[in-house]
Amino acid sequence: MPNVIVPNPESYFRQFVPSQQGVLKTIEKEAAQEFIPIIGPVVGTLLNILAITSGAKRILEIGTAIGYSGIFFAEACKITDGKLTTIEMNPAHADRAADNFKKSGLSDFTEVLNGDARDILNGMAESFDMVFLDIDKVTYIDLLEPCHKILKNNGLMITDNVAFKESDEFNQALKAHTGFRSVPLYAFLPDHSPEYDGLSFALKRES
Ligand SMILES: C[S@@+](CC[C@H](N)C(=O)[O-])C[C@H]1O[C@@H](n2cnc3c(N)ncnc32)[C@H](O)[C@@H]1O
Predict the structure, then answer these.
(1) Which atom, in ligand 1's list, is nearest to the CA of 65?
(2) What are the chain's domains?
(3) Which residues form the pocket of ligand 1, taking CB atoms under 6 Å from any ligand atom?
């Protein structure tokens, strides 16, 4: 019997979108009203699962906005006994993220750094198990080498919005990078901004 895809896969898969409560639900509403792009509950849950199953203790997020994706990572850190460091250039967003982490009871698992990630990464001595890159796409290319440097061997870099045209230079450089083994995934991502987009997963090779 041939494999048959369900009719209307978009509406079919919407029934499986995990619904959120509390602070995450409030952020979803605020993000929609204020046009703040967020990863949404499907990608959020995926990142939370990856962080927990890989036992990531030190997680770096680049592009906090108001803390939506950060809450998924920080919840994972509660389980792995880890900590999320998250970088945001916009001071008002950084303050709101810190407030949202506090309201979620996650302050002990989070550190919000306000500034341009390009400057902050230059001076960073620490190394990380997982890096999540989610800022302006034209800037991704500037952060490829710094992210490679701060990742531990076998650490994972996850990059959002790699289906954006502006991500092409980054995607090509990542493919050619001998220090990473990587794969992009293009998918229907309900409630992600936007819903058809790509994420890439890059493992830092042992050096
Ligand atoms: C797509 S939003 C992040 C969404 C967030 N990860 C989420 O899903 O909840 C991108 C954020 O990156 C910030 N940003 C852009 N360029 C940056 C840079 N060079 N350094 C730090 N933050 C930056 C923007 O201010 C914006 O809040």
Answers:
(1) 27
(2) 38-204 (3.40.50.150)
(3) 37-39, 63, 65, 68-69, 87-90, 93, 116-118, 134-136, 139
153: amino acid identity, one letter: N
Does the pLDDT value for residue 19 go beyond 80? Answer: yes
CA of 131 to the centre of ligand 1 (A): 14
Mean pLDDT for the stretch of residues 89-104: 98
Is the pLDDT reported for residue 35 higher than 80?
Answer: yes
Average of per-residue pLDDT values in the chain:
97
DSSP structure string for 65-132: TTSHHHHHHHHHHHHHT-EEEEEES-HHHHHHHHHHHHHTT-GGGEEEEES-HHHHHHT----EEEEE
Contact 197, 165 (CB under 8 A): no
Helix (H) or strand (E) holding 180: strand 180-188
In which element (H, E) is residue 23 found? helix 22-34
| Residue 90: per-residue pLDDT | 98
- Helix or strand (DSSP H, E) at 31: helix 22-34
Quick check: 71 and 97 in contact, CB under 8 A?
Answer: no
- 32-36 long-range contacts (CB < 8 A, ≥24 apart) are 36/65, 36/66, 36/93
